[in-house]
Amino acid sequence: MKALIFDMDGTLTRSAQPISLEMMDAISKIATIYKKYLVTGSDFVKVEKQIPERFLLNHFNRVFTCNGTRVYNTHLDYDLEGVGLQPELIHKIELLDHYSQADINHIISYLLKLASESHTKFKTGTFVEWRGSQINFSVVGRNCSTDQREDYVRWDQKSGERQKMAEKLRKEFEGWGLAFNLGGQISLDITRKEWDKTYALNFITESPDNCIFFGDRIMPGGNDYKIARTCKQYHSVDGPEDTLTILEQYK
Q: How many C-beta atoms surround the C-beta of residue 57 within 10 A?
């Protein structure tokens, strides 16, 4: 068997938006010789807001959230007694397994300091989102509207703000074993260095030589970069429209 591994935001969906009917139809038509996996930096609550749970259960073998540090079995055997009708959490790991609460507080305080220094036009709230194995940081804030998100994307492209903040964070927390990568369009993902998306490959039965990755952040510092380069093949996409075109060859 071969495996197709998909990022979510910017690949299967527009950032923070529901999956389209066209994309669901394209995924449903992928040839049965391929297993399908979803690997995202988002937590499962956000995944369910964008992709219906029933669709995940019907079309994906496993869903990996928080860069793969939370593993959900979605290939359920409904004939087994006691099996529920929702994705089954089969693995998780936490930052608090490695850092004290005081350490976490220090990281968050520094992130809030960076947010206070940003000159972006909008700051909407929820700058720091705790995801257990990951801290997601956004200076525009997770509460931003679509228009505010798009404004920040333009600002970040012009100023390189997220890359500059990632460099400051790497310097400030050198020796902590932390990684700081661009997440989606507006944020940074802070997690253990070994917990990039390649962590998910530990729970995928197919070897990397039989895996094909789809992602929109396949560049140094992007959270799709390492897993894409580890897989035998990858497709760098510039949005769901690109993904739809490429999926034609996997029917």
A: 18
Clarify whether 7 is annotated catalytic. yes
Q: Is 79 a catalytic residue?
A: no
Of the candidates 7, 43, 189, 196, the residue annotated as catalytic is 7
Q: pTM of the predicted model, to two decimals? A: 0.84
Q: What are phi and psi of 187, to 5 degrees?
A: -135, 175
Mean pLDDT of 142-165: 94
Q: Where are the alpha helices (DSSP H) in 8-91?
A: 21-28, 44-50, 53-59
CATH number of 96-194: 3.30.1240.20
Nearest residue to 136 (alpha-carbon basis) of 229, 50, 46, 216: 46
What are the residue boundaries of the structural domains of the chain, listed by start? 2-92+195-250, 96-194
Confidence of residue 203 (pLDDT cuts 50, 70, 90): very high
- CATH fold of the domain at 2-92+195-250: Rossmann fold (3.40.50)
Please tell me whether residue 164 adopts helix, strand or coil conformation. Answer: helix
Determine the angle formed by the axes of helices 161-172 and 101-117, rounding to 10 degrees: 140
Length of the chain: 251
